[in-house]
Amino acid sequence: MTGRGFGTPPKASPDVIAARDALADKVCHELERSGLPAFRGEAEHGSSPKASGTRVHVDPSVNGGVIVRWRTGEALRAAALEILKSGDFAGIPPTLRHHETVGQCMAGALAGILASAGFEVQETDPHTHGRAVLVRGIRSES
Predict the structure, then answer these.
(1) pTM (2 d.p.)
(2) 19-62 pLDDT, tens per residue?
(3) Each residue's pLDDT tens digit, 85-101
């Protein structure tokens, strides 16, 4: 269905993906230097689906970059998922609200930490990546 624009977005070149992969490694290193747990989220890096902390992965699309998002602890994640599965959103249950608040607060903190470390950061499209930070590169020192 690509004739109507519904297909997957075009992929970046292998050179661009390699540069993003190196950037993702630098992002993980800087977050770890800041005291935050950080892990790569791609399958080839072998991260556990239960891992908590900062998940860093490469978006391979032409307009992509390095996506950084906070992953709450498994207990809070599981509780929020159960609420979402039930479909009962009457009054927004406190657990779901808390999960969303943690994600929102951590996205702001991650953006601030990475900007302070010299990375070019911006918010992601919330419909595509939720509460995440997009890293495009490292600011040049002028």
Answers:
(1) 0.84
(2) 999 999 999 999 999 999 999 987 555 556 678 999 999 999 99
(3) 887 767 778 888 899 99
Distance from C-alpha of 135 to C-alpha of 68, rounded to nearest angstrom = 7
Distances (CA, A) of 40 to 5, 52, 118: 30, 11, 20
Q: Taking the mean position of all CA atoms in its chain, how far away is CA 130?
A: 8
- Residue 20, beta-bridge partner list: none
Amino acid present at 12? A
What's the N-to-C CA distance of the chain in angstroms? 46
- Find, among 42, 38, 130, 134, the residue nearest to 84 by Cα: 130
